[in-house]
Amino acid sequence: MMSCDTAKRMLSDYIERTLSPDDFSSVEEHLMRCPDCKHIFEDVAYLTEKLRSLPLVQTTEEFDTQLRLRISDEFMMEHPLITKKNLTFGLSGAALIAVIAFFIVTTMNTNTVPMAPPSSDNVMNQTQQMASPIISNRALKTAASNFSGKKDTIRQEPQKLDRDKIKLVDQEKH
Amino acid sequence: MIKIEKAIKTSSSPTDEELIARFQQGDNYAFNLLVKRYKDPLLNFVYRFVGEKEEAEDIVQETFLRLFKNKHYYREIAKFSTWIYTIAGNLAKTELRRRRRRKLLSISHFMTSEKDYDIPDEDSNPERETNTVITDRIIQKAIDKLTPKFKQVIILRDIQGFSYEEIAEIVGIPLGTVKSRVNRARLKLQEDLKQLMNEK
Asked: How many inter-chain contacts (A to B, CB under 8 Å) are there?
């Protein structure tokens, strides 16, 4: 006769009807003679049925939204817009542009206003020309006084005028 | 048998394996379809495993997040369903381990405080719940008391309706071990609930 332990080892196969006909008969025979095992087998069959009919739980309405947020958070963590590499690259570029801009501005200033030749004038005059394209008032006054000292040679000595050298705009052939 | 994912699939709809292949090639719509197909079956599996719905939902979301991040790890040598259930099962087991550690820590805290605490065991007397009917809640409590290795196989077999072969793939143990564990898990549940069963 089959032992209780052997019968219990065959319990699942017996409930699921996967035993061979011979084994099935042996278990049946044991259950007829062993009320304890019969009780256990009946309980397990009942419980198995209960487990299969447990109510289904369903995800909440927010599940999909929360999942999307979680995925996007994860994606942002893995692919951040401001990385150390990006930051270094950006700052280096900005510094380079600033250096180039400074170079261009200073170069333009020095080219626009020619440096005054070294003169007896003071250093103040030179520095002002370097810093600004506007010529100092003092330089303008000097130039004007030099020019006013010149004589009008055409009015005073018209006989010296070489008329061929003077051409009006409308007389020129184009 | 409760296998929602199988019920959803029709002859015209793509298989899980086709969907994951499309997702691996960058089709995010295929990912959405997989989520739609598996979110509730996975929630049922994990909920029965950890016993709390909110925690279960969090684990299922983590499962899909892992799928999203590690889609290229899937190879078609395994069924997609067994792969996704393996991920969810592992996460659920990790959660149970974390809880056990937390419980042990709190117990050791009580011990060191040298006070005479009476730790209530709410699960020890399920008869208090009802005198005549074995409710779903009582069954869930009995499942909670099983160790993770028994819990996992009985949920997959009796609640989710997987075959023994599929369970062997999901859990990563031999077929014979699966059958033996399912058998012992059923006997343990019966042992735990036998007093109530006499009143049924």
From this structure: 85
**Per-residue pLDDT tens digits of chain B, which is 200 residues long:** 445 444 455 557 899 999 999 999 999 999 999 999 999 999 999 999 999 999 999 999 999 999 999 998 998 778 999 999 999 999 999 998 888 888 777 766 555 554 444 444 444 444 444 444 578 889 999 999 999 999 999 999 999 999 999 999 999 999 999 999 999 999 999 999 988 777 65
Q: What is the total residue count of chain A?
A: 174
DSSP character for A39? H
Q: Indicate the number of domains in chain A.
A: 1
Helix B80-112 and helix B164-171: axis angle, to 10°?
Answer: 60
Tokens matching residue A16: 């699921």
Q: Is A66 in Cβ contact with B40 (below 8 Å)?
A: no
Q: If interface means Cβ-Cβ distance under 8 Å, which residues of chain A face chain B?
A: 8-9, 11-13, 40, 43-44, 46-48, 50-52, 54-60, 63-64, 66-67, 70-71, 74
Task: Please state whether the predicted TM-score (pTM) of the whole model is above 0.80.
Answer: no
Can you say whether the dihedral through the CA atoms of B39, B41, B45, B48 is positive or negative?
A: positive
The number of beta carbons lying within 10 Å of the beta carbon of residue B170 is 27
Are B20 and B71 a contacting pair, CB within 8 Å? yes
Say if A22 falls within a structural domain.
Answer: yes
CA distance B53 to B60: 10
Residues of A in contact with B139 (CB under 8 A): 47, 50-51, 54
In chain A, residues with a C-beta closer than 8 Å to the C-beta of B43 are 57-59
Residues of B in contact with A5 (CB under 8 A): none
Domains of chain B, CATH where assigned:
1-119 (1.10.1740.10), 122-200 (1.10.10.10)
CA torsion, ordered A17, A19, A25, A27, to nearest 10 deg? -90
Classify residue A89: in a domain, yes or no. no
The residue assigned the tokens 């017996």 is A14
Both tokens of residue B19?
């969907």
